[in-house]
Structures are given as structure tokens and as C-alpha cells.
Amino acid sequence: MATPFADLVSSIYGSNLKRHCKLWEASGTNLVDATGNADQTANNGLLVGQTALSSDAGAKSVLFDGVDDYARQTGGLLGIATSPPLTFGCLFKTSNASQAACLISAGRYNTGYGHFMFYIEGGQLKCGWCNTGGGTWSWQEDGPTGAADGNTHLALVTCSSGSDLRMYLDNDEVASSHGINITDGATCDVRLGVYSRSMTISPPDAFDGGMEQFFAANQNTTAGNVSDLVDAINAGGGSTLPPRTNMLGGFMNLRGGFCNG
Questions:
Q1: Which of 49-63, 83-97, 195-209, 243-257 has the lowest mean pLDDT?
Q2: Can you state the percent helix, strand and coil of the chain, rounding each to 5?
Q3: What are the counts of helices (DSSP H) followed by strands (DSSP E) for the chain?
Q4: For residue 146, what are the β-bridge partners?
Q5: Gap between the Cα atoms of 38 and 86, Å rounded
Q6: pLDDT for the residue numbered 59
Q7: Cβ of 58: how many Cβ atoms within 10 Å?
Q8: 61: β partners
Q9: For 109, what's the count of Cα atoms within 13 Å in the CB-facing half-sphere?
Q10: Which terminus of the chain, N or C, has fewer Cβ atoms within 10 Å?
Q11: 56, exposed or middle or buried, with CB in 10 Å at 0-12, 13-18, 19+?
């Protein structure tokens, strides 16, 4: 039997794993939006500031509606490093090839501070870094294509130094000469499905699709590690993940919210 994906993430990164959220909890803190409107279902989603995994809830994910849904961790980066070695990753599924939407966003967006975003645009993974008050990108890089084919994919960005960033869509790799540098602080957070609402740069959309198994680690990820993670997806991950073409049936709905507690 294949090693469950969640267990494999824990094994690869060990104590360097600073955030690991299944996004399929069957119970936990309410997901609410800025007005306090809460999801009236089973409270599925990101647990603020938690690195421990909840009990296995089966083949479920959070469904982002592409309008105003997002998950947010408040209180700063909470142990995620501000410079390499760093890795951000998640599993996602979308068939919306026209969207330009954020998967993972981290850091502060004001002038002089570092904000990093990992996103999808036109079915292509991309990433960028901004420190100019949200007006323009300091740099952007194009990554692998084929991200909007309706299958479950691993999206992962990693670097071991300030100049060897690599983006992966499953085993497809695109390398660049940049690195991940972000700013920490009480007002700097991690968001899934949307970039900071105060930023005015593209991509403007909220993510339209499903996401689970978000993780962030203060460690570089090797091509071999990526291959092992992809193998776990293809195998169904033992008892914890559905087969890669069967993920949609397990999506759980998230309504415009962040985790509060």
C-alpha cells in the first residue's frame, strides 16, 4: 500500500514542516468571512496556527467558489522562514482555464516589504514577488502548463538559496534564478485562494476549484521528493487520498472565509 500523502509530507520535512493543513477537517473552528457570516455545514478547513493533523476525514477537500472564498492564517508567518530554504505546496483541482487566481500568498504587501504569490493563470502555474506597495511586480516567473485539465495536481514551489527557485506541476519542473523572500510581522499572513485584498496587481481573481493538503516548510524540496509525492497522488495515497481523477466528488464547500481561532 502506498504511503498516505499526509504521512509522506511529514516524513520528508520532519521538524522543518511549519504548516500542514489537510483542508478536510470534519470538525473544528468555524470558517467565517469578515462580516462574521459562517459556513453552516461541518466546519471544514484551515485551522489557524496549527501544524498538527486532524484525524482522517476521507476523500474531502475545500471548494473555493472563484468569487470571494479564501482561507487565511492571521498573526504573521508563525514560524515559516522569510528566506530560503523554503517550500510551499498544495494539491488542487480546477477546470477553469480562463482564471488568473492565487493559490498561496504570503507576506506583507506594503512598500519595502516582501510579498510572495504562487498562482495559476491561463492554466499555467506562475509565481511573483512584490515589494512596491502592491502596485507592480518586482519579478514574475512562468511555470509549468496544463494546470486546468480537471485532474488533481501537486503544485509546489521551492528554493534552497536566493537564486534557484523551481516550480513544479506534478513532476514537470521550471527553474528560475530567483528566490522566495517574504516579510513577517503581525499584519503579514498566509492566504489560500486569494492574494491580499489591498493589492491591486494581477491576478485579480479568487481561486475557482478545490484545494487540500497545504504545506509550508523551511526546507528545500528535491526532484526525488516531488516524484515520491506525485506517486502518492497517483496511487491514491493509501487510505487518505482519492485517486487523482476522483477528487471532485469529495469537495467540501468553503464560503468566503478565514479561520477564526
A1: 243-257
A2: 10, 35, 55
A3: 2, 16
A4: none
A5: 33
A6: 45
A7: 11
A8: 251
A9: 18
A10: N
A11: middle
Q: What is the DSSP string of 36-97?
A: --B--SS--SPPTT--S------S-EEEEESSS--EEE-SS-TT--SSSSEEEEEEEE---T
Amino acid at residue number 81:
A
| Euclidean distance between CA atoms 205 and 196, whole angstroms | 11
Q: Which three cell numbers stand for residue 240?
A: 487518505
Phi, psi angles (nearest 5°) of residue 9 = -55, -45
Helices (H), the chain: 5-13, 223-234
Task: Give CA separation, 251 vs 56, 68, 198, 246, 247, in Å.
Answer: 15, 17, 29, 10, 7
**Angle formed by the axes of helices 223-234 and 5-13, nearest 10°:** 170
CA distance to 49, 116, 195, 214, 215, per residue, from 190 (Å) = 10, 10, 9, 11, 11
Pick from 31-45, 98-112, 119-133: least confident = 31-45
- Residue whose cell numbers read 502596485: 135
In the chain, the amino acid numbered 167 is: M
Query: What pLDDT, in 10s, does the model give residues 154-193?
Result: 999 999 998 999 999 999 999 999 988 898 887 777 888 8
